[in-house]
């Protein structure tokens, strides 16, 4: 059980690192190639990186599914 918890913590940590790396990459590329006359700005819409949006129920379901699969795989390792 301890191993499952540790695996989940490591997975969540890895996901968060990837999110932060992507956010950093998005923010630095936005600074380099942005112009004030883009079509998005003219239309009044804004582009937010996916890390800044509110997670939907579908996102939460996907995370739960991944966690369940990890627990299942871990329990099969312990049993086997």
UniProtKB/TrEMBL annotation:
<dbReference type="GO" id="GO:0008380">
    <property type="term" value="P:RNA splicing"/>
</dbReference>
<dbReference type="InterPro" id="IPR034585">
    <property type="entry name" value="PAP-1"/>
</dbReference>
<feature type="compositionally biased region" description="Polar residues">
    <location>
        <begin position="45"/>
        <end position="57"/>
    </location>
</feature>
<feature type="region of interest" description="Disordered">
    <location>
        <begin position="23"/>
        <end position="80"/>
    </location>
</feature>
<protein>
    <submittedName>
        <fullName>Uncharacterized protein</fullName>
    </submittedName>
</protein>
<feature type="compositionally biased region" description="Basic and acidic residues">
    <location>
        <begin position="58"/>
        <end position="80"/>
    </location>
</feature>
């Amino acid at each position: 059980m301890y191993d499952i918890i540790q695996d989940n913590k490591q997975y969540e940590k890895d996901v968060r690192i990837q999110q932060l790396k992507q956010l950093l990459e998005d923010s630095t590329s936005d600074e380099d190639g942005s112009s004030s006359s883009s079509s998005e700005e003219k239309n009044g819409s804004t582009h937010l990186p996916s890390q800044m949006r509110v997670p939907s129920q579908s996102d939460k379901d996907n995370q739960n599914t991944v966690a369940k699969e990890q627990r299942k795989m871990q329990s099969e390792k312990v049993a086997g």
